[in-house]
C-alpha cells in the first residue's frame, strides 16, 4: 500500500504511529475471522488450533489473532512512526479488515461460504 | 444464600467485567465524539485528559478480563463433555442446547458468534486508548484518524453488545452450573 504524501488527505501532524495502531487492529480482527472460518471448515486446521484442550479451537484462533495483531502493530509502527501516511487509505483498509472480522465470525455467513 | 464457584465466575465474567465494560462505553463514546466534533476550541483540560486516560485504561483492562475469563474459565465448563450414558445434561450446557432442535441454534449461532466476535472489542479498545493517549490534544488535527478511532469504538461497542446479549440468553437457556458451593449467608430456617 502506498503511504506517500497526498495533500488532499494527509494530516498536519505525524500520524504514522496512530495509523500503524489502527491498521494493526484491523489486521487482528481480520485474522480472527479468517482463523475462525478455517477452524470451522477444516477438521485438520481445527485440530491444529486446539492449543489448550479445555477451550478447544477457540484458544488457537484467539492466540494467533492476538499474535498477528501485536506483530503487525510492531512492524507497522517501526515503519511508520516518523512519517505522515495517507490516512484515508489506511482508514478504509482498516474498516474493510474490521468488516472481514465481523462477517467471518458470523456463523450463518461462515456456513454460506462453506456451502452448508 | 449460597452460590457455586462456576456461578460466581460466570457472574464475574458477565456482570463484573462485561457489563461494567459495556456501561463504560456511554462515557467513552460521548467524550470521543465531543473531541471529534468540537475541534480545537472545545478540547478537555489536562485534568480532564488524565481522567479520560484512566477511564480508557480501565476499559481496556475490563475488556481483556472479560474475554480471557470467558474463554479460559467459563467456556471450558460450558463445553464440557458428559460421561457416556449421562441423561441429565444440566451440568453440560453445550450438550443441553444441542439436544433439542428448539435450542440448538442458541449454540450454533449464539455461542459460536459470541465466542469469537467478543475478541474484537479488546483489540479495538486497546488501539483506541493508545491513539487517544499518544496524541492527546493533537488528536483534533488528524480528522481521519479521529473519525477512525470513533468508528472502532462503535465497532467495539457492537461486538460487546452481541456477545453480552447472547451471553444473557445462553445463561437463561443453559446456565453454567456446578463447582463447589460457597455459603454467603445462613437463613433463619
Describe this structure in words.
- The complex is a heterodimer of chains A (116) and B (189).
- Chain A has 116 residues and is mainly alpha-helical.
- Chain A is 71% helix and 0% strand.
- Chain A is built from 5 helices and no strands.
- In chain A, 46% of the residues are buried.
- Chain B has a single domain, classed as Up-down Bundle (Four Helix Bundle (Hemerythrin (Met), subunit A)).
- Chain B is mainly alpha-helical and 189 residues long.
- The chains are: A mainly alpha (116), B mainly alpha (189).
- At the A-B interface, helix 1, helix 3 and helix 4 of A face helix 2, helix 4, helix 5 and helix 6 of B.
Helices and strands in order:
The complex is a heterodimer of chains A (116) and B (189).
Chain A: H1 16-41, H2 43-48, H3 57-80, H4 87-105, H5 107-113
Chain B: E1 2-4, H1 5-38, H2 46-78, H3 93-98, H4 104-117, H5 120-135, H6 143-173, E2 181-183
Antiparallel strand pairs in B: 1-2
Helix pairs in contact in B: 1-2, 1-6, 2-5, 4-6, 5-6
**Number of extended strands of chain B:** 2
Strand content of chain B: under 5%
Q: What is the largest interface, and how many residues per chain? A: A-B, 42 and 37 residues
Contiguous runs where pLDDT drops below 50 for at least 5 residues of chain B: none
Into which percentage range does the β-strand content of chain A fall?
under 5%
Number of discrete helical segments of chain B: 6
CATH class of chain B: Mainly Alpha
Whole-number average pLDDT of chain A?
91
Category by helix and strand content of chain A: mainly alpha
* Oligomer type: heterodimer
Domains of chain B (count):
1
Query: What is the gyration radius of chain B calculated from CA atoms?
Result: 20 Å
| CATH second-level architecture of chain B | Up-down Bundle
Strand order, largest beta sheet of chain B:
1-2
Highlighted features:
heterodimer; A: 116 residues; mainly alpha; 5 helices; 71% helix; B: 189 residues; Four Helix Bundle (Hemerythrin (Met), subunit A); two-stranded antiparallel ribbon; 6 helices
